[in-house]
């Protein structure tokens, strides 16, 4: 059972997000890239309530993951929040049709507010 | 030689009667007839004139015909002059051979048959004439060949020169192309490196910063919830986070400079109320300082411009932030908006350290810092105003500064004003209700 799936290639960021979210009472899973995340999602009996998605990752990028997710009926409805340091984030996010986006570095208070909104 | 020109025929005989008889026979030929009554006289005549044919008696006193012929032949000019011997005695084969050896050409026997003499002389005269003509043509031809050869030679030289020039200019062009290629490759490489820097700055610097700020905030939230930190520790943590934020802003500013340099800074312009925007920024920034008093002077109605909300917000944050930073002893900071017919002025005025007059012209250059900042211990990189200027320029406006050292500075932005957009009135009243 878990609530949030974090997809980010940076170990420190995954750990930090996990700590922040667990502090707020969420159960968290992490994946290093899109491919690993798809594996977790497809093999798991349960699905997360929300996905936090980095964009620039090796193996399978955030964009590629999002395409795969949208093509999969079982996964398509899970809300996705993009977390990225990219400059034109709101453009990219609207192109990806995601639920929300937050620029890196993150404000943890904002992150928790956004996650809470989509998990309620 | 002109073909109609008369040629000279020399008649040599010691007997005047014979000379007379030759003359009458040959007069019909219409040529110039010259008499010589002795070998000596004949030689004299040969020196004086160009002789075509010599008619000479073989048997003469002093020098006989053969001896004379030999003398004549010795002169290069007369090597080939035609000689007709007239001989009273029948010429033996031996005599004929002798005559030929001396270069003679023909014989006439006495009694002279006028027709034969005339015919023989005439043949030689004609031969002479033709030979001369041929010589003339030959020399003319040779001259022409020489001329043509010279001309060709000149052309060949010219061609060679042109070829050399062409080769040189080709070489130069090649060198130029090569250096251009190198320069282009270098420029492309520089652009690539800059893009790489952009990517490194945005990703590689921001990733650890994200973890740093995230952990800091998580730590802070946990400590606040559990009340687990002493006041002193909490303050240190607060300062750590503030410095991390500062680092983030600095990275963003450097990224902005890099984007501006690469023409990658894009605006998303839409109609916006500059008063509303300024009000929002001032209310946000005045919470950051207790030393400064903020005053907002704004007309009651909305002032519309076409602009990028986030970028103009950045401009106002930069100017108001500067006003605070460069008035370290506090004081009044005034933000005012005034509207003219087709321009809008946004002014930020402080009572800070001001800008020395010599720095004013350079103030908007990137990485430029006024000379009085270090004495006042105000840190910075010198890109804020550069970014402000570039963003304002992209909006079709301009930014100016007026300052007096130790009195304060006034930064003025002028932007094109637009008419009230359709449907704006209701939004405006809605916004007014919110406030």
Helical content of chain B stands at 40-55%
The total of helices of chain B stands at 10
Q: Please state the structural category of chain B.
A: alpha/beta
Kindly report the oligomeric state of this protein: heterodimer
- The structural class of chain A is alpha/beta
Mean pLDDT of chain A: 91
Number of helices of chain A: 5
Shape summary of chain A: globular
Name the largest protein-protein interface in this structure.
Answer: A-B, 20 and 21 residues
Give the averaged pLDDT of chain B, no decimals.
87
> How many angstroms separate the termini of chain B?
123 Å
The amount of helix of chain A comes to 40-55%
Q: Describe the main β-sheet of chain B briefly.
A: 5 strands, parallel
Q: Which sequence of SSEs, written as H and E, runs from N to C of chain B?
A: EHEHEHEHEHHEHEEHEEHEEH
Strand order of the largest sheet of chain B: 2-1-3-4-5
Topology of this protein?
The complex is a heterodimer of chains A (120) and B (435).
Chain A: E1 4-7, H1 11-23, E2 28-31, H2 34-43, E3 50-53, H3 62-71, E4 80-84, H4 89-96, E5 100-103, H5 108-119
Parallel strand pairs in A: 1-2, 1-3, 3-4, 4-5
Helix pairs in contact in A: 2-3
Chain B: E1 8-12, H1 16-26, E2 32-36, H2 39-48, E3 51-57, H3 65-74, E4 82-87, H4 93-101, E5 106-109, H5 114-226, H6 231-261, E6 270-273, H7 274-285, E7 292-297, E8 304-307, H8 309-325, E9 331-339, E10 343-349, H9 384-394, E11 398-404, E12 408-416, H10 424-434
Parallel strand pairs in B: 1-2, 1-3, 3-4, 4-5, 7-9
Antiparallel strand pairs in B: 6-8, 9-10, 10-12, 11-12
Report on the structure:
The complex is a heterodimer of chains A (120) and B (435). In chain A, helix 2 runs parallel beside helix 3 (62-71). The radius of gyration of chain A is 13 Å and the shape is globular. Chain A is an alpha/beta fold and 120 residues long. Chain A is 44% helix and 18% strand. Chain A has helices at 11-23, 34-43, 62-71, 89-96, 108-119; strands at 4-7, 28-31, 50-53, 80-84, 100-103. Chain A has five helices and five strands. A five-stranded parallel beta sheet of chain A has the order 2-1-3-4-5, with helices on both faces. Chain B is α/β, with parallel strands linked by helices and 435 residues long. Chain B has helices spanning 16-26, 39-48, 65-74, 93-101, 114-226, 231-261, 274-285, 309-325, 384-394, 424-434; strands at residues 8-12, 32-36, 51-57, 82-87, 106-109, 270-273, 292-297, 304-307, 331-339, 343-349, 398-404, 408-416. In chain B, strands 2-1-3-4-5 form a five-stranded parallel beta sheet, with helices on both faces. In chain B, a hairpin with a 3-residue loop joins strand 9 (331-339) and strand 10. Chain B is rod-shaped. The interface between A and B is medium-sized, with 20 and 21 residues.
């Amino acid at each position: 059972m878990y609530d949030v799936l974090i997809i980010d290639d940076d170990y420190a960021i995954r750990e930090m997000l996990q700590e922040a979210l667990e502090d707020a009472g969420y159960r968290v899973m992490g994946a290093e890239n899109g491919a690993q995340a798809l594996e977790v999602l497809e093999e798991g009996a349960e699905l997360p309530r929300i996905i936090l998605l980095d964009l620039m990752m090796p193996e399978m990028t955030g964009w590629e993951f999002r395409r795969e997710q949208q093509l999969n009926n079982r996964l398509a409805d899970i809300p996705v929040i993009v977390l990225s340091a990219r400059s034109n984030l709101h453009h990219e996010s609207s192109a990806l049709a995601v639920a929300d986006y937050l620029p890196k570095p993150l404000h943890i208070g904002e992150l928790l507010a956004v996650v809470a909104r989509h998990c309620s | 030689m002109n073909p109609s020109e008369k040629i000279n025929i020399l008649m040599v005989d010691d007997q005047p009667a014979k000379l007379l008889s030759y003359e009458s026979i040959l007069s019909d030929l219409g040529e110039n007839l010259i008499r010589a009554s002795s070998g000596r006289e004949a030689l004299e005549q040969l020196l004086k004139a160009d002789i075509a044919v010599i008619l000479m008696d073989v048997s003469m006193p002093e020098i006989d015909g053969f001896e004379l012929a030999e003398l004549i032949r010795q002169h290069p000019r007369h090597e080939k002059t035609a000689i007709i011997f007239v001989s009273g005695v029948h010429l033996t084969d031996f005599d004929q051979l002798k005559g030929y050896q001396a270069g003679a050409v023909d014989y006439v026997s006495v009694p002279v048959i006028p027709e034969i003499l005339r015919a023989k002389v005439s043949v030689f005269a004609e031969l002479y004439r033709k030979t001369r003509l041929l010589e003339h043509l030959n020399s003319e031809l040779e001259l022409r060949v020489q001329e043509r050869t010279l001309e060709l030679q000149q052309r060949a030289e010219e061609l060679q020169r042109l070829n050399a020039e062409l080769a040189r200019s080709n070489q130069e062009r090649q060198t130029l192309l090569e250096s251009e290629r190198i320069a282009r490759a270098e420029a492309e490489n520089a652009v690539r490196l800059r893009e790489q820097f952009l990517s490194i700055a945005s990703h590689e610097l921001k990733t650890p910063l994200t973890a740093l700020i995230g952990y800091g905030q998580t730590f802070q939230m946990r400590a606040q919830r559990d009340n687990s930190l002493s006041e002193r520790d909490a303050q240190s943590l607060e300062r750590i986070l503030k410095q991390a934020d500062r680092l983030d802003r600095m990275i963003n500013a450097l990224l902005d400079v890099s984007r501006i340099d690469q023409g990658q800074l894009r605006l998303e312009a839409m109609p916006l109320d500059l008063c509303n925007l300024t009000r929002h920024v001032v209310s946000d920034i005045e919470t950051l300082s207790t030393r400064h008093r903020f005053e907002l002077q704004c007309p009651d109605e909305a002032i519309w411009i076409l602009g990028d909300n986030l970028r103009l917000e950045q401009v106002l944050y930069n100017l108001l932030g500067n006003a605070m930073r460069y008035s370290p002893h506090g004081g009044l900071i005034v933000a005012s908006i005034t509207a003219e017919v087709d321009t809008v002025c946004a002014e930020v005025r402080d009572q800070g350290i001001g800008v020395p007059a010599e720095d004013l012209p350079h103030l908007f250059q990137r990485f430029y810092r006024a000379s009085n900042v270090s004495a006042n211990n105000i840190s910075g990189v010198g890109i804020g105003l550069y970014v402000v200027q570039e963003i304002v320029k992209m909006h079709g406006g301009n930014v100016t500064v007026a300052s007096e050292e130790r009195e304060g500075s006034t930064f003025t932005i002028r932007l094109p004003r637009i008419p009230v957009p359709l449907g704006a009135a209701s939004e405006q009243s809605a916004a007014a209700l919110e406030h």
